[in-house]
Amino acid sequence: MKTEMAMPLRGISLCSFGILCFLLNLNNLISPAAGYVLKDCRVTRTTQAICQKNSFNLFPKDIPLIVTSIDLSQNNISKLNNADLKNLPNLLSLNLKCNSISIIESGTFVVQMSLEVLNLNSNRLCKLQEGMFDGLVNLTELHLTSNRIKTVAPGSFKSLTKLKFLDLGHNKLHQLKNILQHTPHLQYLSILANNISNFHSWELSNTSTELVSLDLSLNELRVFGLSADIFPNLTRLNLANNGRKNGIVWDVNDTSYLRRVSKLYISGCRLQEQQKVLETFNSSLIFLKLNQMRNNLRVLINISCKIPSLTSLEVRKNDIKYIRSDMLPLCTNLKVLNIGSNKLIDISNNSFQSLRKLNILIMKSNRLKSVPYAVRKTAISKLDLSYNNIIILRCDDFANMTRLSMLHLNNNPLSALQDCVFKDLVNLKFLMLQNSNISKLNSAFIKHLPNLQVLDLSNNQLTLLDHGQFKALNSLQNLTLQGNKLQKLNKGNFNGLSNLTYLNLASNVIAKINIGTFGDLKALKTLYLMTNRLKYTSEKPINDPPFAELSQLDTLYISGQHRHLKSAFPQNLLKGLTNLSLLNIRGNQLISLHPDIFNYTPNLNKLYLSANDLRDLPDNLFSPIQKLKALYISQLNLGSLDFLLLANLTELKFLQVRKNAFSVISETVLQSLPALKYLDMKFNSFSCNCDNAWFIEWVKNNKKTQVLDAYNFDCKFPPNLKGKKLLNIDIRSCTVDIGFICYICTACAVIMTIAVSFTHHFLQWHLVYTYYLMLAFLYNSKHKNKRAHQYDAFVSYNANDEGWVLGELLPNLEDEQGWTLCLHHRDFQPGKSIMENITDAIYSSRKTICVVSRDYLKSEWCSREIQVASFRLFDEQKDVLILVFLEDIPMQQLSPYYRMRRLLKRQTYLSWSRADAHPDLFWEKLRQALDTQEHPMGEHLRLTVEEGPPGERPDQ
Predict the structure, then answer these.
(1) CA–CA dist 414, 160 (Å, integer)
(2) What pTM does this model have?
(3) Are 286 and 309 contacting, i.e. CB atoms less than 8 angstroms apart?
(4) Which residue spans adopt a coiled-coil conformation according to this UniProt entry (predicted)?
């Protein structure tokens, strides 16, 4: 019996386990993984996590897996644990500068095999430990400047076999030992501003490297010694600001050790053997810095200029006031000369006469009052005279300088330009005149500068542009007039600028743009008009839209117009801008926008509307600009975002709605923006109730849209939650927990399956009995008051016992004693269901005689008959049941037949097997049982002398 039970239960358990697993998986599908909204960081479009200036004390744990770059600079992190980065295997760049990191546990970077750039500048590391950088097998850049590093353990850089850039500047190193031991591919090494006093090649293990640049500046270097060829590829050597006390001892055994150095920085150095040092680079030096030398400068210049390969010389911050003709006579091969920041007052006429190859001359940040005559005797292409004291430009200042292509005259106290000043600059392409106090251009650009491409006149004192002011500038592409005092623009102001693509008119006082102003700018792509005083008071169409002829314009800024009164834009202001991609009209005190204003800009993809008073935007305002990808609508006092429902902005990726008046975010609004990647809703008045429950869940769980700074959203309503954080509000009472429901359903399914299995195996007969008991109860309730006894007894027997019933029972009871019996084979009504016939027969008879045998106990229909009869017995509390046993059946064989065994414990019975000797007594007892009235239970007639079940003797 135990084996029979175990197998079904085991099968049911496996089935239940399968159902449980399925429902749990379904729960996982319904409840998505957490999204990537961060508490104090934001993820940019290039998968960079920006977490700077957030006062972090520990490495944040919620940075998503998709991030490839992290900026954690300017925080308070003091330690990196080996578990901090274990979930970020895709990192390419990690910026931890300006923290307080003093400890990096071994194994911290073991999963950062993709990391290429690590920035640990400005921390508190004192020692580079063994295994500190294990795992960084692909690291190419390591920044460790401005720490407190004193020592480097031998195996610190063991994993950094691909390292190319190492910055150890501003630390406390005394030697270079162990630095290049495991970095064979290092190309750039900076050890500036340490405590290194002696540099010896043997410290670097005498191994050849790929080093290209070595910076030893700002140390107290006393000896520079090379006894081996360890720098065969070195091209840049910086020794600036060393040897200030006693000078540097130059101990290089073979000049070929530095045979490829082309850039040498010895500014501020004190060299014991200047000539010997410079002769070391005699065959390769191209660029030389001699800044802040002061002593023996003339000698150094002469020695340097004897190097035939030298083409670029920088002599800055040496307090040179005068340059005479004998200062640069040997520099015949120079192409670039920088003598800026020297307090120059005068330059003799022949100072540059010997510089026949000179191409670039830089004299910025001096005290020159005029353009030196000496420049006319050069063939330079670039001249920088910015930040001097030049008051006026004369007609012959640039005489015969036909090769000049770039001229910097900015930040000089110029007041006006003469007509002839640029007459010889036929190849000039870049002219910088910004911050120069110019109030009049006169005719400087009407006849000359045919090849000029860039002209910067920003931050001057121009008030008016004359007709054809730039007529000769046919090649001009970029014109900057920002920060002047222009009041209006007229037709012809830009005549001749047919190739202009960039025009900056920002920060003037332009109040009006007259008809045809931009008519000549057919190629214009970018126009800045912000921070002016353009005035429009009505949305009514204007006769001559100012931008009607700018069909190629791509970018237009007309933000921040200074007005005293709130205003509007004409509905056709943007007419003609069919290629416009970016429009900025923020901060214009607009009170409304006409629904048709964007009908003329179908290609717009970035729109700035913030900082206006547009409380109600038309529902169809954005319908014409279906290609919009970025929308800025902050500070508009918007009460809702429902106007976006009809906009159909299916390509919108960035939405900024800061500082508005809505408190509830509609789910349908965000569903109407399927491409949204970034949502900025900072500084709004959020309601922390069930109206925003879906939004809170969406912010936390959606994996498509990043809600910037969502963890800092404050509650404003209701009053008792004011100041709380929106995402910290408990919304469990507002939402249906799908996971919990699935859990309950799963648990119920398992319990029901187990219960059914248990019941089926242990309580099957009880259930069957209960079922038929219920049927009998319903029948009894229905026919209780209208029932009449048609028969004296209903005989319940098995077909195998039909011979005894017809041969013995029927003749004795009906023929001899005159009782009326109900037999199923002759008295059941055809057409009725078997159960209905059984129930009618039992309740239509005064008594029920059950002829019990082993076959009877196995019969399904006999079982049902005795069950209905037993219900009548207990329902009516009358003696209506007579049991006749045809054979002796032991009690243990009655155990499976629960109902029969129970009846035997309460009812007496007749046994035919014991009536062989006295059959007449048997029939008399049966007659007495039929003849008795329906006594209450417990008062029935004793039928036999035995009260135990058949097969058991009274004395047993």
Answers:
(1) 56
(2) 0.74
(3) yes
(4) none
